[in-house]
Amino acid sequence: MLPTMRIYSRGILKRNLCNLLFNFTSQEKNVLALNVRSITNTNSVYALPPNSVMYVFDREAKLRQKECAAKAHDVKLYDYLKDEVGYRLADRIFDIKRTFKRALDLGCGRGHVSKHILSESVEELIMADMSPTALSHAEVTEGIKVKRKVVDEEELSFESDSFDLIISCLSLHWVNDLPGCFNHIIRCLKNDGVFMAAIFGGDTLYELRGSLQLAELERNGGVSPHISPFADVRDIGSLMNRAGFTMLTIDTDEIVIGYPSMFELIWDLKGMGESNAARNRTLHLKRDSLLAASVIYQELYGKTKEDGSTYVPATFQIINMLGWKPDPSQPKPLKRGTGEVSLKNLYKLDKIIKETKTVKLDDEEK
């Protein structure tokens, strides 16, 4: 067992953790970093019984954050992450070979997805966001008919069966009633309509979360929630299936961005409008705890470039989801026992294909 495991004893944690880290070898720091990621990963707040709602987020505070970020004169400097995720989401729309007559961009922000959508894919786009300022600045591709509407993602007032496509980019992770939101979305979709979205997953900013928790534990003897909880990828599929979506596709991406220090990361999160909005959040963090967290962040996760300069990585886990509203025209799974080839014979697949008989049809039978 590596000696780093001893740091979880109460006596060691009461010492100055920052000084203790300086004496660790690089191998010990790597082991500690891996353990911090596992123990600080947020548990999903969505694994609740049906019809239960846990009000985790302060929606009014989130609206103020988004409005403040959208009104900043340098707001474009902080669009890099959402623009990248929006581009990837738009690319998934292109993979569906059809033209959607009416689409909804839910939580559109400054048009992170809409600016990449082509008129060949969408004819009419309804852009909806809770922030009027962000909505007014949202960009869109020429040739698409656009309507803008201020909408809270938790209260969708659109008519049933009114959209062929609903998309959402990095917005739904702030929704308290995510199961209810999925129910509203599938209600608004037409039969055989598509829902595509991207949200932050549970491993997002695990480096920052772990550093803040270790610093507060060492300085104050306890921890406070400074990073909002995120959904777990395992629960998203269950929630979408419960809402009635079919042919689900769920996968994850990890985007790692380097920052000069922890403070630049926190500043950029504020510029994105992605600051903590949990109801039980503490409004202030002591200066010595912040400085300690910065040192811990650098010691545990800091990287060195070829030119000798250092940076700290920040991980953003993106959960991508896609689901269809049921329709009789969609392919149906076969009944159990109808398969002609057993999975245990997959290793003989080449032989099975060669032994398969082919029948030549006459012109009248074609």
TrEMBL record:
It comes from the Eukaryota. SUPFAM superfamilies: S-adenosyl-L-methionine-dependent methyltransferases (SSF53335). Keywords: Methyltransferase, Transferase. GO terms for biological process: methylation; mitochondrial respiratory chain complex I assembly. InterPro entries: Malonyl-ACP_OMT, SAM-dependent_MTases_sf. One of its GO terms (molecular function) is methyltransferase activity. One of its GO terms (cellular component) is mitochondrion. This is Arginine-hydroxylase NDUFAF5, mitochondrial. The lineage of its organism: Eukaryota, Metazoa, Ecdysozoa, Arthropoda, Hexapoda. The gene is LOC107271402.
